[in-house]
Design brief:
Strand order of the largest sheet: 4-3-2-1-7-6-5
Order of helices and strands: EHHEEEEEEH
Number of helices: 3
CATH architecture of the largest domain: Roll
CATH topology of the largest domain: PH-domain like
Strand content: 25-35%
Distance between the termini: 46 Å
Radius of gyration: 24 Å
Number of domains: 2
Largest sheet: 7 strands, antiparallel
Shape: elongated
CATH class of the largest domain: Mainly Beta
Amino acid sequence: MKNLILNYHKNILLLCFIIAIPLLGTLLLLITLLSLPKESFGVLTVSSIVTSIFLMAIVLYWAINKEINIPCKVDVTENGIGYRFLKRSLFYQRKDFYSGWENVIGISEIFCNATGKYFYRLKFKNPNITVNLSPIQEKDAEADYLFSELEYYQNTYLISEAKRTYHKRSAQKLAQA
């Protein structure tokens, strides 16, 4: 398996920022507007609103593209999946992660209407986390390759696990008889 470079993000962090930044920006704008003298309410009000919207957009863009979506190197092997961040982030403390296939409880491909691209969601048992991996610009082929590998290993693991479970139960029934 070749090493793949993809973007990593967690939905809950993305959602929190999409909600929190406009709320905080609006709160700061209201505090600013209420503290202005009533005589200078016209031009100062409009310029405060425009500046506030502009600053919220810049902060949201920075947070999403520089701190929430982090490039990472993904390795998929017959034993499991791992990833390692290629840059630091303020919001993700763990720099790398590896899990065996027995710890993966779900793999799904999801289409994003906003970007027109697919991303891949992996759910793990321990720790109980959900990870999203998406292609970096012009790397759609790598993302498709990753998903086919993920499906292959997940299906292979589930089949081998079912066989092991079946043989254990058969052996237990024979031992009881």
